[in-house]
Design brief:
heterodimer; A: 115 residues; mainly beta; seven-stranded mixed beta sheet; four-stranded antiparallel beta sheet; B: 113 residues; five-stranded antiparallel beta sheet
Chain lengths: 115, 113
């Protein structure tokens, strides 16, 4: 059973450019979460999917951010017109509901640097 | 809003020492999770707690779900160099079952010089 994978691991971009990150959850996991983590902080929730439906978005997710999970498997997170404040580690996590637990399993993250 | 406060913020360990850290909140939670994060990597789940008063072990790690449901504790016995990293507590936002987690700011474990 492979874990959560994220691509790319690192992304350097110039301010104003668009970037897209991909997350492949653990197979059969129906819930997929996106978090953002800045230096010295714990991860902060951005949004989550139940299969292909996006069920909740944090106020942290500005209009420049959009996430999709078109077939209920992998997910993408796009940031348009990047700003320096978007520099952070973007983490994806997945879990299987119906097991009685809330354990989420994280991927290695995508480190975004906006110049 | 809901907030998790971790203590201490950082600590130095010498191989063989026992380590204790805690996580407190003014809110009540039904679940506590403990994660460890190495530099440049995602958090790795260590222990999950679901019942007040519960004590759960994972090797040299032991975590407890506080009786008040407002706190949790993590102990590491006989620490080894690979225990170095940042330890986060987490709990479900709003206490709900959606699973969106809030995290503390972490306790950073480093090796004593």
């Amino acid at each position: 059973d492979t874990g959560v994978s994220q691509d790319p691991r690192h992304k350097i971009t110039k301010r104003g450019q668009n970037v897209t990150f991909r997350c492949d959850p653990i197979s059969e996991h129906n819930r997929l979460y996106w978090y953002r983590q800045t230096l010295g902080q714990g991860p902060e929730f951005l949004t989550y999917f139940q299969n292909e439906a996006q069920l909740e978005k944090s106020r942290l997710l500005s209009d420049r951010f959009s996430a999709e999970r078109p077939k209920g498997s992998f997910s993408t997170l796009e940031i348009q017109r990047t700003e320096q404040g978007d520099s952070a580690m973007y983490l994806c996590a997945s879990r299987l509901t119906g097991t009685g637990g809330l354990e989420q399993f994280f991927g290695p993250g995508t480190r975004l640097t906006v110049l | 809003g809901q907030q998790l406060n971790q203590s201490p913020q950082s600590m130095f360990i010498q191989e063989g020492e026992d380590v204790s850290m805690n996580c407190t909140s003014s809110s009540i939670f039904n679940t506590w999770l403990w994660y460890k994060q190495d530099p440049g990597e995602g958090p790795v789940l260590l222990i999950a707690l679901y019942k007040a008063g519960e004590l759960t072990s994972n090797g040299r790690l032991t975590a407890q779900f506080g009786i008040t449901r407002k706190d949790s504790f993590l102990n590491i016995s006989a620490s080894i160099p690979s225990d170095v990293g940042i330890y986060f507590c987490a709990a479900p936002l709003g206490g709900g079952s959606q699973g969106n987690l809030i995290f503390g700011k972490g306790t950073k474990l480093s090796v004593k010089p």
